[in-house]
């Protein structure tokens, strides 16, 4: 799969407008076994309580059954288990959605495919949840702008409840700009609409992409790439007198105006 992903990355880089028509077949037995092995150990479990270790006891058969459901288009992710963790510097709590281990495997496989395409599209101003980038890199470039440029003002922006309110329709529309494989789009759509369980009751998810899912960060970056990063680069910067920069980490960003 790694060789095929590298080829996809090369094509995506060479042709920014290319739409990929055949991607779902990359979720095969070999790649999904690898995704299982790459999954962290001893993590919180989904509503069925299946651990990585338990799933691995009959790995070959489990993966064969999984691939069969994917090929027959009958695969549907299990609703995630809703839990809450303390929010940093706040009395509020942040909701997390914990998928079943098998769904984590599929999400990891899809994330690899999406990263191979969109890492060539994402702008340098984006740092959150990206390979070989972290919050320290974002702070480093932020400090560079403040210390080395004649900054007039800095605007610190946080999108309120971003992950809970992402518009599913627009996520899918943005994906279609690069992906024309209906099978892969169908699976992603089912993850978005998979719902969650809380106190024994199932809830629908009409909006949002649950934090806790492997696929959520890259979907968030794709959404914000189109609605924020490109908007700033194509519209805002052109209307500014002097230089303007933006540094974004997930849904936190800091646009700044320089003389």
From TrEMBL:
Note whether Nucleotidyltransferase occurs among the keywords: yes
Q: What is this protein called?
A: Group II intron reverse transcriptase/maturase
Residue stretches making up the Reverse transcriptase domain: 66-259
Superkingdom of the source species: Bacteria
Native source organism of the sequence: Oceanobacillus polygoni
- One Gene Ontology molecular-function label: RNA-directed DNA polymerase activity
Keyword terms, alphabetized: Nucleotidyltransferase, RNA-directed DNA polymerase, Transferase
InterPro entries linked to this entry:
DNA/RNA_pol_sf, GrpII_Intron_Splice-Mob/Def, RT_dom
